[in-house]
Amino acid sequence: MNHASHASHADAPGSVAPLHFIDPRRFKQNAREAVNDAHLRASFRSAMDFLQVKRAAHFAEPQTFESLRHVGEAIRRYSLSRLPELLEMLERNLTARGVQVHWASTPEEANAIFLAIARDADARRLVKGKSMVSEEIELNHRMAEHGVDCLESDMGEYIVQLAGERPSHIIMPAVHKTKQQIAQLFAERIPETPYTEDVDALIAIGRRVLRNEFRDAKVGVSGVNFMVAESGTLCLVENEGNGRMCTTVPDVHIAITGIEKVVERFEHVLPLFNLLTRSATGQAVTTYFNVITGPRRAGELDGPRSVHLVLLDNGRTQAWRDTDFRPTLQCIRCGACMNHCPVYARIGGLAYGTTYPGPIGSIISPHLLGLEPTQSLPTASSLCGACAEVCPVGIPIPDLLMQLRHAARHEALPGHLPLAGQGEARDWKEALAWKAWAWLNQRPTLYALAVRLGRALRTLTPTQQAGWTAHRTPLKLARRGLRERLPEGVRRG
Amino acid sequence: MPLPDTRAARQAIFAALRGVPAAPLPAPDLAPYHASPFGRGRVGARIDPATLLAPFETAARGWRADVLHARARDWPAAVRQALDARGCRRIAIGAASPLQPGLDQALQGLAVRRFEQPLETWKGELFDAVDAAVTSTVAGIADTGTLVLCPGAQEPRTLSLVPPVHIAVLMASRMHPSLPAALHTLYPGDGPPELPTNLLLVTGPSKTADIQQVLAYGAHGPKELVIVLVDDLAGDTP
């Protein structure tokens, strides 16, 4: 196949390491390992500081941010409130302009569509622009199983793919890697490439290798930042130009995104674009804002002859149907919440084991994957609220984390449908202990008796107390309770 | 191989969405946005483009674009100067560039490749044997140093993407303060805009900071962007 024939050529795209999966079920262990990795800690700390400072420069006046965010939040909330109608309007307008719209409930369905389009176009390779939704469906992996290889062309994604890893940040996928590691990777995996730590030289290598791929690819793949229902338009935001390459040069363009990314009007996109670039990388604007309305029209001399849009659900309707969880879908994927999260900054993105890491990942992943594998993620927060403070579309992330913690341990509240994996983290011993606690607290005489007994046996308090004593001193009843220490007049009852 | 029929998935998604009573919110009010610094010039009197040229240049240079000033009668010389300074000999242009006839005058003596055939018939040449492309622009945005391009049959999309140098000619009269102001001028009215196949905002040359946040130019698109800013405002008197 095409790939193999390139192998000895200097401009081959490089041999890709097999993908290394990380399980979100191992989150606590992953986090522990990550915290002890000095390189990783340093990479993330400096990157997060850099991104925080750059963003802050744009919003020096809190009022500037607040008023823009207010508009952005209103647009996203309005769009979601009309989601079914807007999706129909979008489909109608896309179809009228010649875009083929495909629907997928699951990653499997989405992958089947990609495979069929690739086969139809007789393509053995798909050249890809950055798309987190394609990561979500594990497109590269699934296509490889059918002999179609996917080549990432965003520089960060290309690096991550060469290393057989997953993106550790939704905007800066290779943020966990040092330039020395990247230099080593290029020298090892791209034929006839000398070791160099010069960033311009490394980028020039990536440019040279990927340029041939853009020229020769039959099918290009991209994500979408915003979809406009009224005009059937797809908007892509980027700096490198690889997104434009993937959506312009190959004969076929397949875009994939989640159903929530639609807005009604083109003018609704503009404030969101202003918010996105400033929140993500602290840029007033990106190099390219690529607005696509349909395939090549009669008389035009470039652009894809066919454009496909794959609209993925994959758990989004579960978040949508419950108005408490619906704000999760307001997200425009800027990554500001992770850039400002004290947990994310210390453990990095890979430890989460999910496509979307950090605070937004902890509130979206339970809908995409169910609460069983993701039950630890909503606990990966001190609830400091930094994420909600910087979110450009006003998602109440800490509230949603709390609701998911509750959902992981309890039955659905009255009037709410259960989430996938509802109650999965429930522990009967813990539940029983709380029940006993509540029972005791409702019986003052018994409570007083229990406290007296506890004090009498104080010296027998175990020094090992399940998970608690791993990082803390043992819990021990005080000799005198707070109530007894208060002056007479303050005590009640 | 026929493409899969995805109507069942569509039905399932809409069934899930319609399973909840509809409660549409009122349309968002964009007035505060238009009244904010981000919406400068979107409503009210047109801001005099002459006052926007200096801020535009500062912003564009901030993104590492080069800016050359020219007058309406001599801009072709500025284009030529930009090309010569970079040693560009093989130049691609749109077959029906709105910059004609001035453009032909600028390119005299150079190897000019007109984009007359579909891309697939000369892809290799465009990728590997063109030094620069010259295109028109439909608007400039002063606040961010951004160009608005409306490529199409007359000037295809790949011209501003594939060659390593992009020379963009911008008329000063097309300068607007902000993004919403520029787009509202291009697509006035309250109905859905009739958008072209591709509408494009370009700010500076292609770049990336994906390796340790070090900014590098010329990632995949043009390594250099030169803006020839043509003063067509005050007639042609110097």
Please tell me about this protein's structure:
The complex is a heterodimer of chains A (493) and B (238). Chain A is α/β, with parallel strands linked by helices and 493 residues long. Chain A has two domains: 2-317, Rossmann fold (3-Layer(aba) Sandwich); 428-490, no CATH class. Chain A contains 23 helices and ten strands. Chain A has helices at residues 2-6, 27-35, 38-58, 62-81, 83-96, 107-120, 132-136, 139-145, 155-162, 179-189, 199-216, 242-248, 266-281, 316-321, 336-339, 342-347, 358-369, 371-374, 386-390, 397-409, 428-441, 444-456, 482-485; strands at residues 99-104, 125-128, 149-152, 219-222, 226-228, 233-238, 252-258, 262-263, 288-292, 306-312. In chain A, the strands form two sheets. Chain A has a six-stranded parallel β-sheet with strand order 1-10-7-4-2-3, sandwiched between helices. In chain A, β5 and β6 (233-238) form a beta hairpin. By secondary structure, chain B is of the alpha/beta class. Chain B contains seven helices and twelve strands. In chain B, β2 (90-94), α5 (102-106) and β3 (111-115) form a beta-alpha-beta unit. Chain B is globular. β9 (288-292) of chain A pairs antiparallel with β9 (198-202) of chain B.
